[in-house]
Design goal:
CBS-domain, five-stranded mixed beta sheet, four-stranded mixed beta sheet, 8 helices, 30% helix
C-alpha cells in the first residue's frame, strides 16, 4: 500500500468517525509535507488535551489505562508534551539502537539528523528480515556494520495522522487505521503556523492492544 492509498484510506476512516460527526479540514491523515518535521521536544503549538486518566508523571510511571472502542482516540496516544520522545541518530548501529529501546522500554525510536526527524525504526525492523536483506543487497560482511539509516522507515513512508484529527477521533477509528495500514507505529504530526510541522506524539499497536485487552487484527 503506497502513500496515496493510505491517505485516502485514513481520510475515509477518520472522516467517518469524528466526534459529534464534525468533519474538519484537517481530518485527512497521512499527508505529504513540504519538508521533514522538527522533532517535538518542549511544548506544543496547540494546547494539550487534558485526559483525566493520565497524570503528568515521568514516562516510566505513566499508567496504561484500559480503553474501549468508544473512548477518545487521545487515550491511546503517547503525547510528547507529557513524555519525552525516544530518539536515535541515523549512524547508530542497529543493535545499539535495539538495546536503547529495551532500556527505555519502547519498541520504536524517532530517527533524527540534527533537529530533523528523518524516519522511524522499530524493534520489528531490527529483529526481522531487514538486516539480512540489507546485507545480501549491500555486500556488507557483518551485521555490526549495519546502521539505523540502512533499514529505518524513511520519513516519507512513515504512517502519520494529523493532531487535529486524533483529538476528535474515537479509539475504533484508530483501530481501523491500524488494520488498514498494518502499521505497528503511527506518528502524530501537528502543524504550527509560524514553526512548520512537529512530531507531536505516537501510537503503538502493541500498547493499544494492551489497553484494549485484545489483538488488533
Amino acid at each position: 500500500m503506497d502513500r496515496e492509498d493510505i491517505q485516502i484510506c485514513a481520510g475515509e476512516i477518520l472522516g467517518d468517525h469524528l466526534l459529534d460527526t464534525r468533519l474538519l479540514d484537517t481530518a485527512v491523515a497521512y499527508d505529504t509535507f513540504d519538508s521533514r518535521p522538527v522533532a517535538f521536544m518542549s511544548g506544543s503549538a496547540l494546547p494539550a488535551v487534558t485526559y483525566p486518566r493520565i497524570a503528568r508523571l515521568p514516562s516510566a510511571q505513566i499508567p496504561e489505562a484500559s480503553v474501549t472502542l468508544a473512548d477518545p482516540g487521545m487515550a491511546v496516544v503517547t503525547d510528547f508534551t507529557w513524555e519525552r520522545p525516544a530518539t536515535v541518530t541515523e549512524d547508530r548501529a542497529i543493535d545499539d539502537a535495539l538495546r536503547e529501546m529495551m532500556q527505555a522500554r519502547v519498541r520504536a525510536l524517532l530517527v533524527v539528523r540534527d533537529d530533523e526527524v528523518t524516519g522511524l525504526i522499530t524493534s520489528y525492523d531490527i529483529q526481522g528480515e531487514r538486516p539480512l536483506r540489507f546485507l545480501q543487497a549491500s555486500g556488507f560482511l557483518s551485521r555490526t556494520e549495519i546502521e539505523v539509516h540502512h533499514i529505518m522507515i524513511p520519513w516519507d513512508r512513515v504512517p502519520t495522522l494529523e493532531w487535529q484529527s486524533i483529538r476528535v477521533a474515537r479509539v475504533f477509528a484508530v483501530v481501523d487505521f491500524l488494520k488498514a495500514t498494518r502499521a505497528t507505529h503511527v506518528l502524530i504530526v501537528e502543524r504550527a503556523e509560524r514553526s512548520g510541522v512537529f512530531v507531536r506524539g505516537l501510537i503503538s499497536r502493541a500498547r493499544l492492544e494492551r489497553q484494549l485487552g485484545r489483538p488488533v487484527d
